[in-house]
Amino acid sequence: MDGKIRTIAFLVMNKLLLQNDLLPSVLQDPSVFDMNSIEEIVEDIRWGQEAFQTL
Q1: Which of 4, 19, 43, 47 is the most buried (most CB within 10 A)?
Q2: What is the C-alpha to C-alpha distance for residues 1 and 16, in angstroms, rounded to an integer?
Q3: Of 4, 3, 2, 6, which is closest to residue 33 (Cα–Cα)?
Q4: CA 25, 30, 34, 40: dihedral to nearest 10 degrees?
Q5: How far is Cα 49 from Cα 18, in angstroms, rounded to an integer?
Q6: Are 14 and 25 in contact (CB under 8 A)?
Q7: Mind listing the pLDDT tens digit for each residue in 8-31?
Q8: Where does 9-48 show beta strands of DSSP type E?
Q9: Separation between Cα atoms, residue 16 and residue 55, nearest integer Å
Q10: What is the widest separation between alpha-carbon atoms in the chain?
């Protein structure tokens, strides 16, 4: 994905997390949505939620 699409994906992801009363996520790998399984993406999102809590 190019930078614009990746940015939109992160914004939409965090918007949906917040709408569902979940913490936003700070992802360490910008290519998390590229060629990963759902389980890997969920794991990265959960890691990012823990990272968000430390900010």
Answers
A1: 47
A2: 20
A3: 6
A4: -40
A5: 11
A6: yes
A7: 999 999 999 999 999 999 998 878
A8: none
A9: 20
A10: 29
